[in-house]
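Revision sheet: structure tokens.
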Amino acid sequence: MSSTPRRVEDFTTPFLVTTGVTLFFALWTLAALGGFPAVLIAALTVDRLISLIGARRAQRR
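Predicted:
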């Protein structure tokens, strides 16, 4: 009764597209509520967080 596992679908591209669309609308909403400086602050904060996470993951290796 043993069978080899079958390949599963690759959902990487749909995930990245959905994440991009969600980020676009989030920044668009933030721009409408707080203006362009709020978008810049949010984008820089997200960029710094991603860089920090990457640096911590690199240290673990």
